[in-house]
Amino acid sequence: MATIDQIEEYVRKREFTDYIMPLWLPFLPLIIVLSSFFWFMIILYLHDQSLNGYRVELSGREDAVIYSALPIYVILVILATAINVYVVYKWVWRRNEHFKRQKLLFNSIKDFLKSKGFDVARLESICMEIDVEENVKNAVLWALIQFVPYIGGFLLIYVYHFLNKDFYRHERREDHFLGALSSILARRGFDFSYTRYNPIPDRSTILYFVLSLITFGLFGLYWVYTLTKDPNEHFIEHRRWEDQLLNVLRRL
């Protein structure tokens, strides 16, 4: 039988599971690659100028910079790649951890209300749907799958697809649960009204993919932005309604 202490414990776990990613982090690999590329091209240009007689001689320090340019560029590209893998990993990881936490939270709320004599049949139905639909995905696998030869890029697009869609569907189930919960509590005279300020839109993978192609990847930057922003806003909304709901449940 669930207790209010158990519910509070699942709420506290959001500090670990609901990771709010900085919006700039997914773009850091691109920034590193582009800036290092331009730096490398400038070094090569200066070296070429010196070979064509525009500079009489290179000092030892300048010569070392030129010949170390390529290794440094390679190291920066590897660093950017590692950061990109980390970002995809954290996208999938926080999806998994948040979904697991909410599943435990909803079940504990349902069981707590049931122990208090509430009719929770509707909540039980929604919890069963969540158990079936919200499966854990391997974060390490999906972070590395982009390196599969020839098809890695398409597999990464699939990661974008399921992250957008999973959070959209997750939020719809959450809204159904909270709406049913509000009605159940209202029958006993407890007021729990909830309005979502920033609902996650149903983003079209096909449309986003086509727009990314015809804009030569520029729209893809916005797509990456949504993969970070949507869950961030969802987690912030959680903090608001969870605290409000806890205040109501403590009075039962």
TrEMBL record:
Annotated InterPro entries: DUF4234
Start and end residues of each DUF4234 domain: 203-234
Signal sequence region: none
Segments traversing the membrane: 23-46, 66-89, 139-163, 206-225
Record Pfam families: DUF4234
Keywords: Membrane, Transmembrane, Transmembrane helix
Keyword Transmembrane appears in the UniProt entry: yes
Protein name as catalogued: DUF4234 domain-containing protein
Top-level taxonomy: Archaea, Methanobacteriati, Methanobacteriota, Archaeoglobi, Archaeoglobales
